[in-house]
Amino acid sequence: MDPSGLKATQQGLLYQIHIGDEPAMGAIAASLIMDLSALGHTLKPLIRDGYVETFADPDDRRVKRVRLTPQGLAKLEAAMKLWQIAQQRFEDVVGRDKAEKLRAALDDIAALDFDLPPAS
After folding, report:
1. CA of 41: how far to CAs of 63, 77, 92, 100, in Å?
2. CA angle at residue 49 from 43 to 51, to 5 degrees?
3. For each of the chain's 120 residues, which pLDDT tens digit applies?
4. 119: phi > 0 → left, psi -120 to 50 → alpha, else beta; which?
5. Phi and psi of 24, rounded to 5°?
6. Rg (alpha carbons) of the chain, rounded to whole number
7. 56 forms bridges with which residues in the sheet?
């Protein structure tokens, strides 16, 4: 992913914004399991570099939404091409069956409920 100039977290964030269709910041934070301040910190360089812009929700000005700019969409598309190459290389090394099993196991783990009671 290095040639894209994006960190993995930034690529994931751009992807979530893209599939979210101008999502609210709270929705993005929830989908990425991060708090709003961490999301804001991660968004800053993407905003600075012109890949993302924030705007007030037209129906509720208290809600901040996020969208990709045309430059951000181009950056995401380039990063996704690199991601596909990396995934293919991984499958070439470990084999398609093992790669599919690993992805299935990771999906199962991601679906687990890790909500723990507060420490006492």
Report:
1. 18, 23, 36, 33
2. 70
3. 678 889 988 999 999 999 998 999 999 998 888 889 999 999 999 999 999 999 999 999 999 999 999 999 999 999 999 999 999 999 999 999 999 999 999 989 888 876 666 665
4. beta
5. -70, 150
6. 17
7. 64
DSSP 67-93: EE-HHHHHHHHHHHHHHHHHHHHHHHH
**Tokens, residue 81:** 């091409």
CA separation for the pair 69, 108 (Å, rounded)? 34
Q: Under a CB-based contact definition with an 8 Å cutoff, are residues 18 and 76 in contact?
A: yes
C-alpha to C-alpha distance for 120 and 114, rounded to whole angstroms: 17
Which run of H or E residues covers position 14?
helix 8-20
> Which tokens hold the place of 68?
């990709």
User: What is the number of residues in the chain?
Assistant: 120
Rounded to two decimals, what is the model's pTM? Answer: 0.80
